[in-house]
Amino acid sequence: MSKFVISTFRGRLTNNVTKTTFKTNLIRPLLLSHNFSSTSNNYAVQNISVYGSGLMGAGIVQVAAQYGFKVTMVDLNQEFIDRGKEIINASLKRVAKKQHKDDKAAQNALIEYTWSNIETDIDSVRGAEKADLIVEAIVENLQTKQNLFQQLDKVAKPNAIFASNTSSLPISEIAKATQRQDKFAGLHFFNPVPQMKLVEIIKTSQTSKETYKILNDVIMKMEKAPVICKDTPGFIVNRLLVPYLMESIRLVERGEASMKDVDTAMKLGAGMPMGPFELCDFVGLDTLKSIVDGWRKDGKIDANLVATSKILDDLVESGHLGRKSGKGFHKYV
């Protein structure tokens, strides 16, 4: 959770993420130097295909291309692709300006180098044919993800590795749609991908050591920090963060403190860049509710941690979803 890291909620965050305090407080952008990275011929992964061109997918494409991988961004139609290219272009300009503040030529060189490594395609089959690694960053729906991987399993190279960027769905369940479960894992990037250093590598009981090593090498080449986790609900970050957010809501429901005071307390007392209610609004209340409802239905987490919240349910039902709707726990102009 894709931004203090809850922002990992599958690209639900808006482009305003780049303007928030937590971005600069938690991690500095990892930018390319003048000596642009190149992919060695004997490197296990040279070609990456990313399915999905939203905030998460576009961010993964950008970072991979910046660090020398040849990347194909795949989506359902050209309109989605064009929107993804706009996201990448805007982000690249920010990155280049920060990396080379007073050197316009260096800024342009970084942007041109990154784009030289990016292709796009609206043909899902063709997009997978040359990939050494396929990363899925589409809608958070188990059946939709399974359908995609089942199709790609038939056309991708036998040794191609599959990875899902899901923040809440079981990797093992997604992998069941394929015949390469030993080459399947989770790669959970955090949004905004170009700025956030952490990547969770999620291993199922069938993920091979070789697959993990290759994925770890890929993440290290992108100059990000990998952490390993078993295929458990929420992995590491969301597993800890969602219950924290829900308990914050329940604390207010019980009348023990106000939302304003809870936000202030966690920022000034715990050093959080955002208070929990600010963070809920930033992520999207519908997204938070969807995750909690899914975990409760799954039954693998203590029921008390994922109990329903009337305040949350009522806000979502009323269409007050947080920043994206103009109102959630707080109001936004």
TrEMBL record:
Keyword list, A-Z: Fatty acid metabolism, Lipid metabolism, Mitochondrion, NAD, Oxidoreductase
Binding site for NAD(+): G52, S53, G54, L55, M56, G57, D75, E140, K145, S167, N191, K324
Marked site positions, Important for catalytic activity: H188
Domain 3-hydroxyacyl-CoA dehydrogenase NAD binding: 48-232
One GO biological process term: fatty acid beta-oxidation
Family matches, as Pfam families: 3HCDH, 3HCDH_N
Enzyme class, UniProt record, top EC level: oxidoreductase
E.C. no: 1.1.1.35
Broad class of where this protein is predominantly found: mitochondrion
Domain of life where this protein originates: Eukaryota
Pathway per the UniProt entry: Lipid metabolism; fatty acid beta-oxidation
Gene Ontology, cellular component aspect: mitochondrial matrix
Limits of the 3-hydroxyacyl-CoA dehydrogenase C-terminal domain: 234-332
PROSITE patterns noted in UniProt: 3HCDH (PS00067)
GO molecular function terms attached to this record: (3S)-3-hydroxyacyl-CoA dehydrogenase (NAD+) activity; NAD+ binding
Localization of this protein: Mitochondrion matrix
Reaction catalysed by this enzyme: a (3S)-3-hydroxyacyl-CoA + NAD(+) = a 3-oxoacyl-CoA + NADH + H(+)
Positions annotated to bind CoA: S91, K98, S167
Similarity comment text for this entry: Belongs to the 3-hydroxyacyl-CoA dehydrogenase family.
Protein name (Swiss-Prot/TrEMBL): 3-hydroxyacyl-CoA dehydrogenase
Species annotation: Funneliformis geosporum
